[in-house]
């Protein structure tokens, strides 16, 4: 899944036709518990699941899967140039770094010529609205252009969660400046079958404003 709306890679084929994934070297960036890597392995691909969180990778290890787990910073990928055919990231890594171009340039480095990067993030317009699934989440409460990051702190004032806002134009410029060609920008519409609520996502909001943006990029 590329986001809470339920856009399935089997349907979307943003990484390419499923039958062409067999034998491909794929890096899942910000893999969390490596759900995407398990799906890729089932298609015959050779995924590597990378995350900076050791605890998340412990979840991945407990669930299991026939692929490597790597604990590393997305801005300093521990792989040789041209190691992968594809890189994918569903709400991983990119929303949580202050300098996304550092990550994107590293991704370009480890991709082979013609390789594809597909990543999804919270749709930038969502930052102007409260993170609420009900009617209270339908009124603009902040400036879309305010790029102040969202920060949660512990009792001692240390940041324990940080998410960075980039406008849609920022994201496009980041992709292009990092040496990629943007070939598609997918804004999944909320499907009728999805009646679930999760965080600020819900059928009510999803039918009115986009919740996810998926960027499809190629390393020429």
Distance between the termini: 26 Å
Q: Quick one: how many beta strands?
A: 9
The fourth-level CATH homologous superfamily is Vaccinia Virus protein VP39
The whole-angstrom Rg is: 17 Å
CATH class: Alpha Beta
Tell me the CATH architecture: 3-Layer(aba) Sandwich
CATH topology annotation: Rossmann fold
Biggest β-sheet strands, sense, barrel: 7 strands, mixed
Shape: globular
Structure write-up:
This protein is of the alpha/beta class. It has a single domain, classed as Rossmann fold. It is built from six helices and nine strands. The protein has helices at 9-12, 35-42, 54-63, 100-110, 168-177, 203-206, and strands at residues 25-29, 46-51, 69-71, 84-90, 111-122, 150-153, 159-163, 181-186, 212-218. Helix 3 links the parallel strand 2 (46-51) and strand 3 (69-71). The chain starts with 8 loop residues before the first helix and ends with a strand. The model has no long low-confidence stretch (mean pLDDT 96).
Per-chain topology:
Elements: H1 9-12, E1 25-29, H2 35-42, E2 46-51, H3 54-63, E3 69-71, E4 84-90, H4 100-110, E5 111-122, E6 150-153, E7 159-163, H5 168-177, E8 181-186, H6 203-206, E9 212-218
Parallel strand pairs: 1-2, 1-4, 2-3, 4-5
Antiparallel strand pairs: 5-9, 6-7, 8-9
């Amino acid at each position: 899944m590329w986001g809470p709306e339920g856009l399935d890679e089997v349907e979307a084929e943003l990484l390419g036709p499923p039958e062409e994934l067999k034998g491909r070297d794929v890096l899942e960036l910000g893999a969390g518990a490596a759900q995407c890597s398990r799906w890729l392995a089932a298609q015959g691909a050779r995924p590597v699941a990378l995350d900076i969180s050791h605890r998340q990778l412990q979840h991945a290890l407990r669930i299991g899967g026939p692929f490597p787990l790597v604990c590393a910073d997305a801005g300093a990928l521990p792989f040789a140039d041209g190691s992968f055919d594809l890189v994918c990231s569903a709400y991983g890594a990119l929303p949580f770094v202050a300098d996304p171009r550092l990550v994107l340039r590293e991704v370009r480095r480890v991709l082979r010529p013609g390789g594809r990067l597909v990543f999804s993030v919270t749709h930038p317009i969502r930052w102007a609205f409260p993170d609420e699934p009900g009617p209270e989440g339908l009124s603009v409460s902040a400036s879309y252009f305010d790029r102040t990051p969202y920060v949660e702190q512990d009792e001692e004032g240390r940041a324990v969660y940080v998410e960075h806002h980039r406008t849609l134009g920022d994201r496009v410029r980041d992709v292009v400046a990092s040496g990629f060609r943007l070939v598609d920008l997918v804004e999944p519409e909320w499907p009728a079958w999805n009646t679930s609520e999760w965080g600020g996502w819900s059928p009510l909001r999803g039918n009115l404003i986009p919740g996810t943006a998926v960027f499809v990029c190629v390393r020429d």
